[in-house]
C-alpha cells in the first residue's frame, strides 16, 4: 500500500503533463488544407517540397497525407538541404532518388541545381511547399522556397505554401538587408537577418515586392490560431529538428546568436557538443573571467554561465575548452544577434593574441560576410573590435523593413 501511495502522485503528475502536451493551439497549413478537403489540389499533378518538419498535428508526414488522399495526385517530391526524409548531413548534396515509402521520385534542390529546372517541373501543375524554418535569413529553406517560386513562375506552375509558425515569433526583426555583392544561398533575398514573418508571409512579400525574377501564381494556406506574439511553445505543436543542430524549438533562438561567428570556424559555439549554438568556448579562454566580462555588460534578458567542455567533434574536438553557456532569461528583452559581436569584442579585450578577426582563417571571411549580408559589418568591426562601430549599420534597415513587411501580415 505504501508503494501505491508513493506512485499515485507521480502518475497523476505524468497524466497532467501528458494532457498539457496534448493541448494544441494552432492548426498549421497542412491541417487547414485537409479540413478544406484538399480542394485547391484537385485535378492537378502535385509536386511537394518538404522535409521531416512537414507533418500534421499527429506527426504524420505531409508526404504520406497527400499520397494517401483520394483526390490528390502527388507525382513528385523535391528535396531541400538534408533531404525530404532528413537523411542527408548538413552541407552534403541531396541526390535524385526514389522515396522508399511511397516510391515517388525525389528531385534534388540541394545538389547540382538549387532551382527546379523545366525538366523537373514538366509533369506537374502545382508546387506545394511545407517546411518549418527558423525565422533566420541564413537558414537555407527560405532560399529554396524563393527559387522554387521563381521556377514555378518561369514554367507557368502554381505555387502553394502551407504556412507554419515563425519560432522567433512575428515581431522580431534584426540585422541589415543583404547587399548585392553578398547575395548567396544563405542570403538570397534583400531581407534582414531576422525578418519576423512566417514562410507564407515571406513568400507573399517576395512575390509582391519584386524580389524574385518572376512573379508566380501564389496561394498561401493560412494557419488557424497563431498570432505574432506566440513562442513556439505557445503553439502546443511538437518540434521536429529542422536540421541536426536545431534539435529543440529554443535552438532557433540560439542559431542567430552565434551562427555568424560560427562561419569563421575559429571557436566552438556548441556544435560538436550537447548545446549547439548555445556556447562560446576555446582552449585559451578562462571561463570565470570571460563570464564576468560578458555579464558586466549588463545585457537585458541574458546571463552568461562559465562552463567547461570537451567537444565530441568539430572545433577543438577532444580538447578541454573553457567559455560560457548563454542562458536566455527573458526572450522579449534580449537582443539576439548582437551577442556574438559582443563576444568577439570581449575576446579582443581580454585575449588580444586571439582577437577573432585578426587570427581567424581569412579564407573564411567570405562566409562570414555572406551570413552578415554585407562586407561592411566585418570591415567596420575590424577597425577597433567594438560592437558600437557596427551597431548603427546592423540596425539601419529594421524599421523600414518592419513598415514594409506589415503590409503582408496574414496574422495579427
What can you tell me about this protein's structure?
Helix 8 packs across helix 10 (338-350) and helix 13 packs antiparallel against helix 14 (388-395). The strands form 3 sheets. The chain has a 7-stranded mixed β-sheet with strand order 3-4-2-1-5-6-9, sandwiched between helices. It starts with a helix and ends in a 7-residue tail after the last helix. The chain is built from 15 helices and 12 strands. The model is unreliable at 1-11 and 14-20 (pLDDT under 50). The protein has 412 residues and is an alpha/beta fold.
Using brief descriptors, characterize the structure shown.
disordered N terminus, 412 residues, single chain, seven-stranded mixed beta sheet, alpha/beta, three-stranded antiparallel beta sheet
In short:
The chain contains 15 helices and twelve strands. With 412 residues, the protein is of the alpha/beta class.
Helices, strands, pairings?
Blueprint: H1 2-21, H2 29-35, E1 45-50, H3 62-68, E2 73-79, E3 97-98, E4 105-108, H4 118-121, E5 126-130, H5 141-154, E6 158-162, E7 173-174, E8 194-195, H6 199-208, E9 217-221, H7 232-235, H8 251-262, E10 279-282, H9 287-295, E11 302-309, E12 321-328, H10 338-350, H11 356-359, H12 365-372, H13 375-384, H14 388-395, H15 398-405
Parallel strand pairs: 1-2, 1-5, 2-4, 5-6, 6-9
Antiparallel strand pairs: 3-4, 7-8, 10-12, 11-12
Helix pairs in contact: 5-6, 8-10, 12-13, 13-14
How many beta strands in the DSSP annotation? Answer: 12
Helix content: 25-40%
pLDDT below 50 for ≥5 consecutive residues: which ranges? Answer: 1-11, 14-20
**H/E series, N to C?**
HHEHEEEHEHEEEHEHHEHEEHHHHHH
Largest beta-sheet details: 7 strands, mixed
Question: How would you describe the shape?
Answer: globular
What's the number of helices? Answer: 15
Structural class: alpha/beta
Distance from N terminus to C terminus (CA atoms, Å) equals: 54 Å
Strand order of the largest sheet: 3-4-2-1-5-6-9
**How big is the Rg?**
22 Å
In quaternary terms, these chains amount to single chain
Q: Return the average pLDDT rounded to an integer.
A: 93
Share in β-strands: 5-15%
Amino acid at each position: 500500500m505504501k508503494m501505491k501511495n508513493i506512485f499515485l502522485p507521480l502518475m497523476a503528475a505524468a497524466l497532467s503533463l501528458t494532457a498539457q502536451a496534448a493541448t494544441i493551439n494552432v492548426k498549421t497549413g497542412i491541417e487547414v488544407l485537409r479540413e478544406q478537403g484538399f480542394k485547391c489540389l484537385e485535378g492537378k499533378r502535385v509536386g511537394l517540397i518538404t522535409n521531416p518538419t512537414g507533418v500534421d498535428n499527429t506527426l504524420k508526414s505531409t508526404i504520406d497525407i497527400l499520397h494517401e488522399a483520394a483526390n490528390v495526385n502527388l507525382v513528385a517530391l523535391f528535396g531541400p538541404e538534408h533531404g525530404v526524409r532528413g537523411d542527408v548531413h548538413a552541407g552534403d548534396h541531396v541526390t535524385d532518388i526514389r522515396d522508399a515509402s511511397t516510391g515517388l521520385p525525389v528531385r534534388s534542390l540541394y545538389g547540382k541545381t538549387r532551382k527546379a529546372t523545366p525538366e523537373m517541373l514538366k509533369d506537374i501543375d502545382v508546387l506545394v511547399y511545407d517546411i518549418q524554418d527558423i525565422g533566420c535569413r541564413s537558414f537555407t529553406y527560405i532560399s529554396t522556397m524563393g527559387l522554387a517560386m521563381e521556377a514555378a513562375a518561369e514554367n507557368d506552375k502554381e505555387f502553394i505554401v502551407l504556412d507554419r509558425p515563425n519560432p522567433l515569433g512575428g515581431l522580431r526583426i534584426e540585422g541589415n538587408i543583404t547587399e548585392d555583392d553578398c547575395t548567396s544561398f544563405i542570403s538570397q533575398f534583400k531581407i534582414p537577418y531576422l525578418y519576423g514573418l512566417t514562410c507564407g508571409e515571406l513568400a507573399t512579400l517576395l512575390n509582391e515586392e519584386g524580389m524574385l525574377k518572376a512573379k508566380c501564381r501564389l496561394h498561401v494556406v493560412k494557419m488557424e490560431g497563431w498570432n505574432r506574439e506566440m513562442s513556439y511553445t505557445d503553439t502546443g505543436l511538437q518540434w521536429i529538428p529542422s536540421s541536426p543542430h536545431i534539435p529543440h524549438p529554443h535552438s532557433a533562438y540560439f542559431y542567430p546568436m552565434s551562427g555568424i561567428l560560427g562561419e569563421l570556424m575559429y571557436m566552438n559555439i556548441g556544435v560538436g557538443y550537447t548545446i549547439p549554438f548555445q556556447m562560446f568556448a576555446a582552449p585559451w579562454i578562462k571561463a570565470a573571467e570571460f563570464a564576468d566580462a560578458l555579464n558586466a555588460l549588463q545585457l537585458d534578458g541574458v546571463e552568461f554561465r562559465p562552463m567547461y567542455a570537451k567537444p565530441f567533434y568539430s572545433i577543438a574536438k577532444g580538447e578541454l575548452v573553457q567559455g560560457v553557456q548563454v542562458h536566455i532569461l527573458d526572450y522579449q528583452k534580449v537582443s539576439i544577434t548582437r551577442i556574438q559581436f559582443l563576444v568577439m569584442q570581449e575576446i579582443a579585450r581580454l585575449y588580444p593574441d586571439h582577437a577573432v578577426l585578426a587570427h581567424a582563417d581569412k579564407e573564411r571571411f567570405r562566409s562570414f560576410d555572406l551570413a552578415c549580408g554585407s562586407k561592411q559589418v566585418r570591415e567596420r568591426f575590424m577597425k577597433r573590435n567594438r560592437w558600437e562601430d557596427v551597431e548603427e549599420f546592423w540596425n539601419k534597415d529594421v524599421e523600414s523593413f518592419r513598415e514594409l513587411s506589415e503590409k503582408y501580415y496574414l496574422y495579427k
